[in-house]
Amino acid sequence: MTQVLSYDGHEVSLDALYARMWALGVDDRGDGTRLYSPRPGTGEALKWLIADLAGIPTQTGKATPTLHRLRQLAHRALLDNGWAERISQTSFRLLSAPTSDANAAPASEPASDPDDSGQAIDGVAVESVSDDDSTRLRLGGLTWSDWVPLATAAAQAATSPGIYAFRSEGQIVYVGMAGERRGSGVRGRLRVYARGRGAVSGFGEAALDRALADPDWLAGRLDNLNTNGPKRTKDWAIAALNRVPFDVCWSAAESAGQARDWETGVLEELEDLELWNRARPKPRGGISIDS
Fold first, then answer.
1. CA–CA separation, 233 vs 211, rounded Å?
2. What is the pLDDT of residues 106-142, one digit of tens each?
């Protein structure tokens, strides 16, 4: 039976998607499995395959919220069906060849056939579809710490340069790097966020931007203002960080230059994710998606 991923009026055949992933996979073991590890900037990333199959218009290097949700559903369906094992946030071990003659040709319009007998996969709450729910992050070939709350990371993270990642409800939302910072390194950068002193840069700015776009959060802050009087900017920044729970992990580097290179590489690898980072590396070679 054909399985169909659906969201916001767009549908994608999971069989067709898997067939495309299999075609791009590498037979690196000779055991009947394939490694699907999309090359950054080539259009091989899962979200671009989905965009092509679903007929979702895209702009170079950008993904729509609908495309992002379909990608999340695809991640979960591939694992739940036992078709693939996840190697990292973007790579999969495909466990067997496609069993159907799935037509992998792109669709020009969202599917809407009411008589289609496929199995629709659309009953999963977006919040329950996570990109990383493991103890350790598997990304960039780096050795990462365990996921810990921001307050813990601000006290325990490496004092050397390095790279760090934030997640919320299992979803990676931000990747950044820290230089020497007068001997405080990653710990010093995370401490700035935890103390509300990074409201106009990096993750602190991203968190505050999203909080200010949340009417319920703003209403609560205004109630607090009317009851307790005005607060300093750093207090608002800390409140924005407390709006939703965040975990942090990090990887220590030998130098700021190495940390910067790691950050670029990880962001390139995560082109398949919708991150809060305002600056993303330009795809090497460009992305071309026919829609």
1. 13
2. 333 333 333 333 333 333 333 333 445 556 888 888 9
Cβ atoms of 179 and 256 within 8 Å: the answer is: yes
Same domain, 108 and 154: no
Instruction: With H, G, I as helix, E, B as strand and everything else as coil, classify residue 192.
Output: helix
Domain limits at 104?
3-112
Of 112, 137, 167, the residue that ends a domain is 112
CATH number, domain at 216? Answer: 3.40.1440.10
Residue 97, number of CB atoms within 10 A of its CB:
12
Question: Which residues partner with 6 through β-bridges?
Answer: 11
Report whether 261 contacts 179 (CB < 8 A): no
Largest CA distance in the chain: 68
Per-residue pLDDT of 178-205, as tens digits, reads 998 888 899 999 999 999 888 888 899 9
Q: What's the Cα-to-Cα distance from 152 to each of 144, 145, 157, 174, 191, rounded to whole Å?
A: 15, 12, 8, 18, 10
Tally of structural domains, the chain:
2
Cβ density class 57-93: b for 16+ within 10 Å, e for less = ebeeeebbebbbbbbbbbbbbbeeeebbebeebbbbb
